[in-house]
Amino acid sequence: GLCSPADRWQTLRNRYLGLKSLAGSFTETIKPAENTGQEPLIFKGSFLFQLPHNFRLEVQEPVRQTIVGNDSVVWFYFPDEQRAVRQQRNQPVPLLAFVEPLLDTSSRITEEGTGIILIENDNSFLSPLRLELDPTGTTVTGLTFTDELGNQCRFLLNRQRWNPPVSRKNFRFTPPRGVTVEFQ
């Protein structure tokens, strides 16, 4: 039988209520704001999350970069440059930004076609957020949003592993000896 959008939405939300950790690979495409004339940037790598706040991204292309964070601090490590940057964290990780509005019952949902939904949420810094779903409608496989600079960002999430066992040490970062550390 055909489900109504509300039923499909509830099914999707219920599935994500059970999400504790997520691992997989990602491709991020950033299309610069219309007026800049810059080429799109494409990043590829792997991700690991432990909800609500822990994450680790290993970027392999175009340059190697490790991004490790929790609810208060994010580290950016550039091994080829022997450089690490430590930042205070003040907003959610874009790659995970869809989970909160997905679970928030005050979000407004619009279907934009088969497997594409638009979420609008007054509390989210990434609103509106466009989600791409798998054919069963139960897994988010992509998300698109426009950042505060007007760039369009699209993440594709591949080879997802739900609730893998996760060690806390994945989310700790100690700069290797000889690395320059910057604080922002």
From TrEMBL:
One Pfam family it belongs to: LolA
InterPro entries in alphabetical order: LolA/LolB/LppX (IPR029046), OM_lipoprot_carrier_LolA-like (IPR004564)
Origin: domain of life: Bacteria
Signal peptide annotation: none
Name of protein: Outer membrane lipoprotein carrier protein LolA
